[in-house]
Amino acid sequence: MTDEQIQVEVAYARERAQALLSVKGPQGLRVSDAIERSGVLERFPEIDLSVNKVGIFGKTVRLDQTLQSGDRVEIYAPLIADPKQARKVRAAEGASASKESGSKAQAA
Question: pLDDT tens-digit profile of 40-87?
């Protein structure tokens, strides 16, 4: 390893708060190291790295992934609902709403 430092960013966002933190570290810095050095875990105690997925520029990676200078580590909030199930529910609600409006039009 060399003594050269790399610089990366750690990003986390939730509805009312966001953080984009700059981190410097040695070559070979891992995702978990950058997250720890950034202080984001203290700032957002709801982050649980055993639950929250992480990525680099939108691509999911493991915590032991080695970083390159300029990478942006992203910590993703867990999904509240399964996207496929949510679409099914919305489609069902839309179908029942259109049936109701159709039957009201026929009654008039």
Answer: 999 999 999 999 999 999 999 999 999 999 999 999 987 776 778 778
- Residue 55's region, left for phi above 0, alpha for psi from -120 to 50, else beta, is beta
Q: Into how many domains does the chain fold?
A: 2
Q: Assess whether 37 and 86 both reside in one domain.
A: no
Distances (CA, A) of 27 to 12, 39, 67: 23, 20, 8
How far apart CA 86 and CA 84 sit, in angstroms, is 5
Q: Are 50 and 64 in contact (CB under 8 A)?
A: no
Instruction: Let me know: does 43 contact 19? Beta carbons within 8 Å.
Output: yes
- Beta strands 59-61 and 17-26 are unpaired
> Hey, is 89 helix, strand or coil?
helix
Structure tokens at 17: 């708060």
